C-alpha cells in the first residue's frame, strides 16, 4: 500500500514538440512500468491521430514506481487550444517538469504553460531536452530559463529524451523536490474528477485525484455538483492501461487513479466535480475547474453520400471523450442538415474534423469559422449568437461585443518590424516588449491584445511567414469588448442567401463584400438572363457584380437585307430577356462549389 509521504504527483509542461511524450516514454521505460517489448513510441498518445501527428490531445495519466516511491505522471497537451486540459491536470499534481528544447529555446507556449503551473503554486523542475542535437544551444537556453524562473543554472537538468541521458537525474529530482501530497486520510472522502471516459465494458470511468480519505469498491458515492448517486464498482490506477485494485484495497489519499462509477451516462460525471461518499455530511466541494466555453463556431455538414444520422452518432461518440465539444443541429439551404458546432479554437476544429474522418469515416464540409459574439439588446438582455443568422433585428440591438485575446509572441529581434505591422493591421493593441536574455542570440517577447477573430483565419501562417518561421505564439482569452460589426447579406438575383450572411467590421465591409461577389461571379455559371450579385448592409448595396446572360446571335440568319428587320429581332430578344429575368428572380441554382468558394473563405 502506498504511504502518503512516498507519493509524488507531477506533470510535464512544454511548447509543442519539445519532447514531452518522448520523455514520458523514457520515464515509463526506465522505471520498467512498461516492458521494453511493449514499448512503442509516444505510448501516452493513445489516439491514432495523436500518434500520427505526434501531438498530444488528451491528457493521459500513468503510475510508475521508483526507489520505493510512487510517481504519478499526468501527460498534458502542448497546444493552446487544449489549455483547459493542461489546467485540469495541473490542479491534480504538486509539481511540473518544465521541458525546453535546446535547439529552440523558450517558446510562447513554454511561457503559457509555465504561467498556468505558477498559478497553481506547483514546484517547477527545469529541464533542457534534445541536448544530443548538433544545433543544441544549451548555454543560451540555460540563460533564458534562469532569466524566466530566477533559478540557479545548476538546478537545470540536461537531458536527451532520445538517448535517455539525464532521465535518472529527473526521477531523483522528482522525489527530492516535489512535495508529497497533503490531505487527511481520516477525513470524509473527497476526490476531484480531472477527466472521465466511457468504457464499453466498465461504463463511465472517473479519473480522479484523491484529496482526502479513500474509496474502495462497494462504497456508495455521490457527485456534489450533478447530485448523481451510485456505487463504486472498481478502483485502480493507470499503468498506463487501467489496473484494478483487488477487492478491499482502496484508492488512498494523495493518489491518482480511477473509479468505475457504475453510471451509464457520462453527463452525471462532470469534470471538475467532487466525489464524496453518500454517508458524508456537509462536504464542501473542491474548487472546480474553469469551465470551458466554445469561442469559435462553424457549421459541419456531411458531404454527399454521408448522412446526417451517421454524423449525429459520431458527434455523440466524440463528445464522450471531448467535453469541450458542443453542437446543435443546423439546416442550410445549400448544404442540407448538419450541425453548428462550438470549438475552443482552430486546432480543436481541425482535430474534430480529422477524428470524424478517421474514426467514423465521415467526410465533411466546414463553413468559415466565426467567433462567439455577444449581443446586448435594447431591452438590456444579453445573448451569444452562433451565426450571423441569429442576429436580432438591428433596431433591437444596443451593442455587440466580441472576445479579445492576450497574445505573447516570442521572436528573434530582427522580425519585430514585420510582426508589429501584421498585428497592427489586425487591430492589435501593443502592450509591451520583454527581452529573453540569452548570449548572442537576442529574442524578445511581444505582448499584445487583439480580437480573437483576427487570429482565426490566417494569422498563424502570416506570422510564420513574416518571421521566416521563427516566431511562436500563445494566446489566452481575455474578455469581451465592444465591436463595431454589422450583418452583411449577400443577394443573388436579388434574393438574400442565408448561408452567406456574415458579421463584418463596418470599416471592412466594403472590401469583404467586394471579394465575395467577385468570387461568386466566377463560381456561378451563366444563365439565359442576367444575374445580379450584391453585398448589402440593411437596404444599402455596398458591392455588386453582374453575370451577363448567355448570348444567342438572333440575327445570324439574316444575310444583309432590311435594317428594320434586324432591329425587330433584337427588340424581341430584349423583351424575352426581360421576361426571363423577371421569371428567374431568385431562382438561380447556386452550385455547391459556389457556396464553398464563399463559405470556406
Ligand atoms: P506534443 O505532444 O505535440 O506537445 O509534442 P511533445 O512535446 O510530446 O513532443 P514529442 O515527444 O512528440 O517530440 C517531438 C519530436 O522531437 C519527435 O520527433 C521526437 O522524436 C523528437 N525528440 C524528442 N526528444 C528528443 C531528444 O532528446 N533528442 C532528439 N534528437 N529528438 C527528440
Summary tags:
601 residues; alpha+beta; 8-stranded antiparallel beta sheet; binds guanosine-5'-triphosphate
Summarize the structure.
This protein is of the alpha+beta class and 601 residues long. It contains 14 helices and 30 strands.
Largest sheet: 8 strands, antiparallel
Treating each run of at least 4 consecutive H or I residues as one helix, how many helices? 14
- Helical content (DSSP H or I, runs of 4+): 25-40%
Bound compounds, please? Answer: guanosine-5'-triphosphate
Question: How many β-strands, per DSSP?
Answer: 30
Gross geometry: elongated
What order do the strands of the largest sheet run in, or round the barrel if closed? 10-9-14-7-8-13-11-12
**What's the overall average pLDDT, rounded?**
85
Q: Topology of this protein?
A:
Blueprint: E1 7-14, H1 20-30, H2 48-53, E2 60-66, E3 69-75, H3 83-91, E4 95-101, H4 108-119, E5 123-129, H5 138-149, E6 157-158, H6 167-177, E7 190-199, E8 203-212, E9 220-223, E10 229-231, E11 234-238, E12 242-244, E13 256-260, E14 274-277, E15 296-302, H7 308-321, E16 326-332, E17 336-343, H8 346-360, E18 364-366, E19 370-371, E20 373-377, E21 382-385, E22 397-412, H9 416-425, E23 429-436, E24 443-451, H10 452-456, H11 459-466, E25 472-482, E26 485-492, E27 495-496, E28 502-505, H12 509-523, E29 531-537, E30 540-547, H13 563-584, H14 592-599
Parallel strand pairs: 1-3, 1-4, 4-5, 5-6
Antiparallel strand pairs: 2-3, 7-8, 7-14, 8-13, 9-10, 9-14, 11-12, 11-13, 15-17, 15-18, 15-19, 16-17, 20-21, 20-22, 22-24, 22-25, 23-24, 26-27, 26-28, 26-29, 29-30
Amino acid at each position: 500500500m502506498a504511504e502518503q509521504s512516498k507519493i509524488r504527483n507531477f506533470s510535464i509542461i512544454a511548447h509543442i514538440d519539445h519532447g514531452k511524450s518522448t520523455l514520458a516514454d523514457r520515464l515509463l521505460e526506465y522505471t520498467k512500468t512498461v516492458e521494453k517489448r511493449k514499448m512503442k513510441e509516444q505510448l501516452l498518445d493513445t489516439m491514432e491521430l495523436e500518434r500520427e501527428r505526434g501531438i498530444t490531445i488528451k491528457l493521459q495519466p500513468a503510475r510508475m514506481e521508483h526507489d520505493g516511491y510512487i510517481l504519478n505522471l499526468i501527460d498534458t497537451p502542448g497546444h493552446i487550444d487544449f489549455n483547459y486540459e493542461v489546467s485540469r491536470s495541473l490542479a491534480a499534481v504538486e509539481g511540473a517538469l518544465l521541458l525546453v528544447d535546446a535547439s529552440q529555446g523558450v517558446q510562447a507556449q513554454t511561457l503559457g504553460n509555465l504561467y498556468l503551473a505558477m498559478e497553481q503554486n506547483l514546484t517547477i523542475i527545469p529541464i533542457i531536452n534534445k541536448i544530443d542535437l548538433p544545433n543544441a544551444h544549451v548555454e543560451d537556453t540555460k540563460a533564458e530559463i534562469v532569466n524566466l524562473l530566477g533559478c540557479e543554472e545548476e538546478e537545470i537538468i540536461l537531458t536527451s529524451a532520445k538517448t535517455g541521458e539525464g532521465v535518472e537525474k529527473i526521477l531523483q529530482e522528482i522525489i527530492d523536490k516535489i512535495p508529497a501530497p497533503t490531505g487527511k486520510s481520516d477525513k470524509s472522502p473527497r476526490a476531484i474528477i480531472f477527466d472521465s471516459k466511457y468504457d464499453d465494458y466498465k461504463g463511465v470511468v472517473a479519473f480522479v485525484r484523491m484529496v482526502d480519505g479513500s474509496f474502495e469498491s462497494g462504497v456508495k458515492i455521490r457527485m456534489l455538483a450533478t447530485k448523481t448517486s451510485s456505487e463504486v464498482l472498481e478502483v485502480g490506477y493507470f499503468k498506463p492501461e487501467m489496473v484494478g485494485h483487488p477487492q478491499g484495497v482502496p484508492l488512498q489519499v494523495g493518489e491518482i487513479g480511477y473509479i468505475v462509477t457504475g453510471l451509464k451516462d457520462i453527463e452525471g460525471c462532470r469534470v471538475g466535480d467532487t466525489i464524496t461518499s453518500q454517508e458524508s455530511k456537509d462536504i464542501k466541494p473542491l474548487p472546480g475547474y474553469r469551465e470551458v466555453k466554445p469561442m469559435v463556431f462553424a457549421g459541419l455538414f456531411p458531404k454527399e453520400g454521408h448522412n446526417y444520422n451517421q454524423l449525429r452518432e459520431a458527434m455523440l461518440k466524440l463528445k464522450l471523450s471531448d467535453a469541450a465539444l458542443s453542437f446543435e443541429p443546423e439546416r442550410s439551404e445549400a448544404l442540407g442538415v448538419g450541425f453548428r458546432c462550438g470549438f475552443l479554437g482552430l486546432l480543436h476544429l481541425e482535430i474534430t474534423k480529422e477524428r470524424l474522418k478517421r474514426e467514423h469515416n465521415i467526410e465533411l464540409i466546414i463553413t468559415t469559422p466565426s467567433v462567439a459574439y455577444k449581443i446586448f439588446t435594447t431591452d438590456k438582455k444579453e445573448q451569444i449568437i452562433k451565426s450571423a443568422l441569429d442576429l436580432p433585428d438591428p433596431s433591437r440591438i444596443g451593442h455587440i461585443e466580441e472576445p479579445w485575446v492576450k497574445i505573447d509572441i516570442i521572436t528573434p529581434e530582427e522580425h519585430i518590424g514585420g510582426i508589429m505591422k501584421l498585428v497592427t493591421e489586425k487591430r492589435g493593441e501593443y502592450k509591451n516588449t520583454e527581452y529573453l536574455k540569452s548570449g548572442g542570440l537576442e529574442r524578445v517577447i511581444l505582448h499584445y491584445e487583439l480580437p480573437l477573430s483576427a487570429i482565426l483565419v490566417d494569422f498563424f501562417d502570416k506570422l510564420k511567414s513574416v518571421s521566416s518561421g521563427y516566431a511562436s505564439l500563445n494566446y489566452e482569452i481575455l474578455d469581451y469588448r465592444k465591436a463595431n460589426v454589422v450583418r452583411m447579406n449577400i443577394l443573388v438575383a436579388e434574393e438574400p442567401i442565408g448561408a452567406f450572411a456574415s458579421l463584418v467590421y463596418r470599416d471592412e465591409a466594403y472590401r469583404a463584400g467586394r471579394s465575395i461577389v467577385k468570387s461568386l461571379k466566377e463560381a456561378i455559371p451563366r444563365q439565359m438572363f442576367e444575374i445580379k450579385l450584391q453585398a448589402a448592409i440593411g437596404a444599402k448595396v455596398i458591392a455588386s457584380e453582374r453575370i451577363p446572360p448567355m448570348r444567342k446571335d438572333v440575327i445570324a440568319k439574316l444575310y444583309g437585307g432590311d435594317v428594320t428587320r434586324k432591329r425587330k429581332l433584337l427588340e424581341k430578344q430584349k423583351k424575352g430577356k426581360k421576361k426571363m429575368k423577371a421569371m428567374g428572380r431568385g431562382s438561380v441554382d447556386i452550385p455547391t462549389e459556389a457556396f464553398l468558394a464563399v463559405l470556406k473563405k
